[in-house]
Amino acid sequence: MAAKWFLQSEAVALGHADRARLETWLAADPRHQAAWDDVATALRTVADNAADREFLAMRSRALAARPERRWPLSRMMAAVAGLLVVVLTSILVFREVYPGPVHRNGIAAAGPARALYRTTIGGRAEVTLPDGSVAVLDTDSAMRIAYTDKERGIRLLKGQALFVVAKHQPAPFQVYAGSQRVTAVGTRFNVRVEGHGRSPKTSVALIEGVVRVAGLDFAGSAMPDRRTGEITMRAGELFDSARPGALRLSASEAEGAASWVSGTLSFNDMPLGRAVAEMNRYTARPIGLGGGDIANLRVSGVFKTGDSQHFAESMAEVFHLRVAHDARGNPLLLPSPE
């Protein structure tokens, strides 16, 4: 049941009625919450190793396997049910469709090379792209590959990704995120999409090399060529679609822009409310904030992703707060009683 609920919540946004039923089921028995956490952990493990060669080889062997003898119907139905869970999990975390062969330079020989990659909450996946470039997907992120003979195209659908671009390729490497297009040659940069709708916020942190960021007009999911502006970024700069131009990052900010790749988040004088929001992206046990103005407290430091309880306890100790728990057992930071 936990797997069913978790997969359903990952595949589609739950309505109010389904969300209420899920909350009721979780609160009915502590074992239900434990089962939910086990499923989340299993999916996170799969996501973290989605692009691992051994994992892919094992997946291929499993799909190619054939039963050697007939099973009783009841046993076969149980096996099919288990297989469906595994297959659905794989689809949610890692789905690939390559309709044509790919040349050594990464350009599709017959039609575009396309693949969809997704990670669950708390998951992370490193993906080797057809041309040898590497993309690392952050928690709850999704990207689609769209390589053609004219461009090495990537569409970041949501979340965040770090790109390490292969050099000396005939086609430009271009990432489409929100209403922006990022063009790079032999460089390393981080792209993040926040929000939904036709104009989500897009940010680009350039770690090394040079990139060009161009604003685009979008109609649905199309990628037209008409530009509405372009800037050139240098290493150590940050582009934010909500602001004009590019900002120069401090050394610590530049280093922390992609710290999530190593499983940590680096905060430099960040409001506690924003820091909590960042930490909550990596866990199924989000931290809540109580009354007062504690959301405005300033946080600096490096923290491990996915450990909301430890982060809450650390903040309570530093700022003299107290940690309570909500009905689902999630940590809740509250002002200390006078």
From TrEMBL:
Coiled coil: none
Domain FecR N-terminal: 2-40
Top-rank lineage group of the source organism: Bacteria
Domain FecR protein: start-end pairs: 117-212
Entry keyword set: Membrane, Transmembrane, Transmembrane helix
Membrane-crossing segments per the record: 76-94
Molecular function terms, GO-annotated: sigma factor antagonist activity
Pfam families hit by this protein: DUF4880, FecR
Gene3D superfamilies according to UniProt: 2.60.120.1440
InterPro entries: FecR (IPR006860), FecR_N (IPR032623), Ferrdict_sens_TM (IPR012373)
Record's protein name: Transmembrane sensor
Phylogenetic classification of the source organism: Bacteria, Pseudomonadati, Pseudomonadota, Alphaproteobacteria, Sphingomonadales
